[in-house]
Amino acid sequence: MSDLAHYLRISNLLAGNLNIHTALGSVKAEIDKIIEFDHLDICLTDTDKTWNTSYEVGLQTTWSTSRTLVRQSPVRDILLGKTDHLLTGNALNDPRYVFPGAESAPILHHEFRSRVNVAMKVLGEVVGSLNCSSKKENFYDERHVEQVRILADMLAPYFYALRANEKANTEAVFRARILAREEGLRLGALSLTDALEAERQRIGMDLHDQTLADLTRIARDIRPGLTTVQHHRLQQQIQNMIQDLRDIIDTSIPTILELFGFQHAVLTHMERAVSRDCTPQFDVEDQTGGNVDALPETTRIAIFRICQEAINNAVLHSGATHISVVASCQDPRGDLKIEICDNGQFQTRTGKPGSGFAHMKTRAHLIGAKFEHSTEDGTRITVKLPQTAQEAERAEHEDFAG
Questions:
Q1: pLDDT at residue 103 above 70?
Q2: How far apart are CA 157 and CA 123, in angstroms?
Q3: Phi and psi of 334, rounded to 5°?
Q4: Taking Cα atoms as reference points, which of 325, 328, 332 lies closest to residue 380?
Q5: Cα(125)–Cα(107) distance, rounded to whole angstroms?
Q6: pLDDT tens, 226-252?
Q7: Which of 2, 120, 223, 303 allows an S-S link to 128, with CB 3.0 to 4.6 Å?
Q8: Which residues 6+ apart lie within 8 Å of 230 measured at CB?
């Protein structure tokens, strides 16, 4: 079969392919009949000519695993428009391919000696290069350059269009994710606003039903001629009321978190919570080396509030005999993980099925964390804060502070 027949077959095989990888794979066998190669790849540049992406068939190399800076590419002279082709009998010692900072590891690792590279152009503009490599030395000559040039002219418009479509699809998916996240955060913020309003009402009721009632009773009991016992009883009532006010304030403003850090704040809340109705065993561990305390204030408080809610649920509703809170780092990514576990029996509060989980989940999502919970063999709540979310929070906090 003549080269012309192979070129025509390549055109037919390309039709209907909507993916660069499958399109290149579909024509590999026909290209191999025109020009023999051990490795074939198409290198396409971004619009600003800063980065390039490789798509390869034959031997798989690191070129296709990530983008490469154009200035570090072994075919940079083509991508930057300095020449329309490169030809070498031994790329292993050719300074055009192997130079300081070059992404030439595949050339050296796979011993791609002979190479022929031709510019791919659309409307006269270089959009990439078509690259053939052989392990044999001095395998390609000028005749092969012309063959690759014809292939490059055929493939360039098609792969350029596929790349544009791929980029458009990626951007569309990215925009859709952004919109979905924004909508999720909006709904989450509304849910949290409702929760905060309910919290304000709870505080108001505590002040009305407890503190105000105590003050009214004390005011009624104060009268001339109090005995020592009556005077002592009033002092004790005032001390109890002061402690109740402190509990309400500590629940509203996590000052201990600011003063003494995450582990101490959670431990203090745990001690106060378990002293109410039951006495389960408990432990709090911070295995992050203080990373939780290094988080921005809003993130740190959100994590603390989730721990508070989970501890309160365990103490008040589960009958647990053991509660634990563990903060750890997940290597190698550096993600933070907070786990709150108890061995109690999960129960939903009447009239508010799952509302506690919903509030905790909302708080987690608002700081970019992943929230998971399990109610088998007790309750396990897991909050995972990715390293990217931590960096984004810090950057936003620094921008705001600046």
A1: yes
A2: 9
A3: 85, 15
A4: 325
A5: 27
A6: 788 877 787 887 877 777 776 666 655
A7: 120
A8: 221
In this structure, what token pair is assigned to residue 108?
């050296």
Neighbours of 63 (CB within 10 A): 24
**One-letter identity of residue 81:** G
Residues 73-83: b if buried by 16+ CB within 10 A, e if exposed: bbbbbbbeeee
The answer to whether 85 and 145 are in contact (CB under 8 A) is yes
Phi then psi dihedrals of residue 304, to 5 deg: -60, -45
Global pTM?
Answer: 0.47
CA distance 318 to 354: 14
Cα(first)–Cα(last) distance of the chain, in Å? 70
Indicate the SS3 state at residue 369. coil
> Per-residue DSSP letters for 90-123?
-GGG-TTTS-TT---HHHHHHT--EEEEEEEEET
Number of H helices, E strands in the chain: 12, 11
**8 A C-beta contact, residue 296 and residue 399:** no
Which of helix, strand or coil describes residue 88? strand
Nearest alpha carbon to residue 70 among 46, 105, 92: 46
Measured CA angle at 142 (ends 141, 148), to 5 deg? 95
**Nearest-angstrom CA–CA distance, 243 and 221:** 20
Check: CB of residue 96 under 8 Å from CB of residue 86.
Answer: yes
User: What tens digit of pLDDT does each residue of 66-82 get?
Assistant: 888 999 999 999 999 99
Average pLDDT, the chain: 82
